[in-house]
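JOB MANIFEST
job_type = single_chain_structure
chain_count = 1
residues = 319
[input]
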Amino acid sequence: MTIAGKTVIALEEHYCDDELTATFEGPEGRAPEIRKRLFDLGELRLAEMDEAGIDVQVLSHSAPSTQRLDPETAVRLARGANDRLHQAIQRNPQRFAAFAALPTPDPQAAADELERTVTRLGFKGAMVHGLTNGVFFDDKRFWPIMERAQALDVPIYLHPAVPHKAVIDVYYKDYVGKYPAITNAAWGFTVETATQGVRMVLSGAFDAFPNLKIILGHLGEGLPFLIWRIDMALNRPGSTPVRFRDAFERNFWITTSGNFSTPALICSMLEMGADRILYSVDWPFVRNMPGTKWIQDLQISNEDKEKILSGNAKRLLRL
């Protein structure tokens, strides 16, 4: 299968490293078929890419990665996982690229690891999964990572993870037993990561680092739909003015990962423009074929389709 002869780059495609994943608590909602695919960086992954017409996957470690570890363990495991991912990519360098796992519990070490993976291993940026031991990424202790990302001109992908336990207890515990997805892809992921996106703007990070590039998945975690209202409400009398829309349109990119909704995509295109949208599947939590069939059948211009499928990724990641 091909998509109208266009190159296809999928940007949020996950894998698992044996040593790092051994630190995870609980099943993390992973069925055997998903686990099999997460640990595959060869034949099975490539076969499903070929079947769906995907030319390149940008690989990133699955949640929660290193964000829940102590600083020393996070640094050691992130470095090892990144080195092993680099070795796997060297076996298929035309098909795979990577976002680094960062040991955010040690922010300075995380900034150094970002630089190492970009300058020595050829990685294209990094992915951070949810809160770092209960702390949002906009906190100033993580600003050295942002400063380094800006200097290197690479993006940080802010990906969801299971919400803070206190949030689960207050918001979701009445239903989580019967509907466990409410804490993750059905709702909890969106609430947490959209909140993180808003907090990034309010923190002043983009004033300090005006060229910082942030990626949000799942068509922006709902923020494009809400951007007018957020911007309006934040600038009502009595509030410290904030140019939310300007920051969102200047510093954020979004991907289609796990959200193959045509109305949602059109809304995002109208609010942000096609230049800010990147194709992603969210493999293996979502299969490749539904994503490529959806975008193949989209009634948008060939120019916009080419941008979303690969053009924007090539420019943002210098692929």
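[summary]
The first helix runs from residue 18 to 21.
The longest strand covers residues 9-15.
exit_status = 0
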